[in-house]
Specification:
By secondary structure, the protein is mainly α. It is about 70% helix and about 5% strand. Strands 1-2-3 form a three-stranded antiparallel beta sheet. It is elongated.
Length: about 140
């Protein structure tokens, strides 16, 4: 298992533990053990959110702006997006626990991925309107 996947699994487990759930992890899977028929959340390549992180960082790198602002904004944005991803994985685990017969694929694709993309759009909006040359032209 790669370091990033291990970080996501351990951090998600820690967050769910804080919420009072009894959690077990094995490999890239996080599972709340309160409901026996519940399924775990397996972190495949797409579920880890690396594409979100790279897409965000690539946009900021490519869009005009001062290098010194990019040097702090990109890491800050990546941390925010990783937190959103941990919340997304935790939400999927909770849904799997409370509603094991639900359509988790629909929840993952339609709700949780839109939340992640929404966070990216907000971060881009802030970059464009606060730190890019476009913001200076508006003033």
């Amino acid at each position: 298992m790669n370091i990033y996947a291990e970080f996501l699994v351990k951090t998600t487990r820690f967050f769910l533990d804080l919420l009072g759930y009894e959690v077990v992890t094995f490999g890239k899977t996080v599972r709340i053990i309160g409901n026996l028929p519940a399924r775990g959340v397996f972190l495949n390549r797409g579920c880890m959110g690396r594409d979100f992180l790279l897409f965000f960082a690539g946009f900021i790198i490519a869009f005009p702006g001062k290098i010194k602002n990019k040097l702090w904004y990109i890491p800050m944005g990546l941390v925010i997006l990783i937190i959103v991803n941990i919340l997304r994985i935790s939400g999927l685990a909770i849904i799997n626990d409370c509603c094991p017969d639900s359509q988790t694929g629909i929840n993952n694709h339609d709700v949780f991925k839109y939340a992640a993309w929404g966070a990216i759009v907000i971060l881009w909006y802030i970059w464009i309107n606060k730190f890019s040359p476009v913001a200076k032209k508006k003033q």
